[in-house]
Amino acid sequence: TKKEVNCQSKDLKSVPSGIPADTKSLDLKYNAFTQLPSNAFQGLTKLTFLNLEYNQLQALAADVFHPLTELKTLGFTNNRLSSLPLGVFDRLGKLQTITLYSNQFDCSNCTILYLSDWIGQNANKVKRAAGSDYINDPDGVTCSDGKVV
Hints:
By secondary structure, the chain is mostly beta strands. It has one domain: Leucine-rich repeat, LRR (right-handed beta-alpha superhelix) (Alpha-Beta Horseshoe), CATH 3.80.10.10. 7% of the residues lie in helices and 18% in strands. It has one helix at residues 112-121, and strands at 4-6, 25-27, 35-36, 49-51, 59-60, 73-75, 97-99, 127-130, 133-136. The protein has a five-stranded parallel beta sheet, with no helix packed on it. Strands 3-5 form a two-stranded parallel sheet. It has a two-stranded antiparallel sheet with strand order 8-9. One of its GO terms (molecular function) is signaling receptor activity. Keywords: Glycoprotein, Leucine-rich repeat, Membrane, Repeat, Signal, Transmembrane, Transmembrane helix. It comes from Lampetra planeri. Its main location: membrane.
């Protein structure tokens, strides 16, 4: 059975405790997250879908997604990320889809190089939503000055 937890639009600032360990889909869209600490998804090793779109995320711990080795879809659209920590996506070996557009990536800072290189190597996974589906759009990830990351 597909275990889904929907926590959309709950004004959450942190990942709620008590999410069952066998949860596969976790929807945290439309909340008030500004950061994700290292242990945010601890124990949720079965997750295949994680939606963090439409939050106010500005900072991620470099190892926040390391437990999520089964993750296939990761949504980050419409946050306030200006950079991503080195290695943050490196353990997501099963990732098929990631949405990163509508953030505030700072391309004047050399920390953007990790993301830029990662997108270059994983361009087929960088998508945007089109209705209920996703379409490939690696060039849709732009800097705060409008340039492509």
